[in-house]
């Protein structure tokens, strides 16, 4: 998209993520992510561009579950808890690149 004054436009989430100190190829590369309770295609693209893997189901190979709600009523969240997989709430995950 062309902007007459590029310094006035709001950066996309992927641009913000690329500058965020918490995200780097080293921290994402080779890790497996599962989204549950919501889907964010832009975040999925970002994870994949940094060498991560986005999966639709939780398994012992899953590194992180990104959940809308981590209360445990969701089957994917419950399985992640049973397997000892880290669960990150959607709002906490978003904070990494919205700063």
What does this structure look like?
The chain is an alpha/beta fold. Helices cover 38% and strands 16% of the residues. It contains five helices and four strands. Helix 4 links the parallel strand 3 and strand 4.
In short:
38% of the residues lie in helices and 16% in strands. The protein contains 5 helices and 4 strands; from the N terminus they run ααβαββαβα. Strand 3, helix 4 and strand 4 form a beta-alpha-beta unit.
Q: How many structural domains in the coordinates?
A: 1
Mean pLDDT metric: 80
- Distance linking N and C termini: 23 Å
* CATH class membership: Alpha Beta
How many E strands?
A: 4
Q: How much strand content do the residues show?
A: 15-25%
CATH architecture: 3-Layer(aba) Sandwich
Overall, the morphology is globular
Radius of gyration: 15 Å
Give the name of the CATH superfamily.
BRCT domain
Poorly predicted ranges: none
Secondary-structure-based class equals: alpha/beta
Main pleated sheet: 4 strands, parallel
One letter per element, helices H and strands E, the order comes to: HHEHEEHEH
According to CATH, the fold-level topology is: Rossmann fold
- Helix percentage range: 25-40%
Strand order across the largest sheet:
2-1-3-4
Q: How many helical elements?
A: 5
What are the defining features of this structure?
99 residues; alpha/beta; 4-stranded parallel sheet; Rossmann fold
């Amino acid at each position: 998209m062309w902007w007459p004054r590029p310094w006035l436009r709001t950066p996309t989430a992927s641009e913000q993520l690329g500058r965020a100190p918490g995200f780097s190829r080293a921290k994402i590369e080779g890790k497996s992510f599962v989204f549950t309770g919501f889907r964010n295609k832009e975040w999925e693209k970002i994870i994949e561009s940094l060498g991560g893997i986005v999966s639709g189901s939780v398994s012992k190979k899953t590194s992180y579950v990104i959940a809308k709600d981590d209360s445990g009523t969701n089957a994917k969240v419950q399985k992640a808890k049973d397997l000892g997989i880290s669960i990150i709430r959607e709002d906490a995950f978003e904070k990494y690149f919205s700063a």
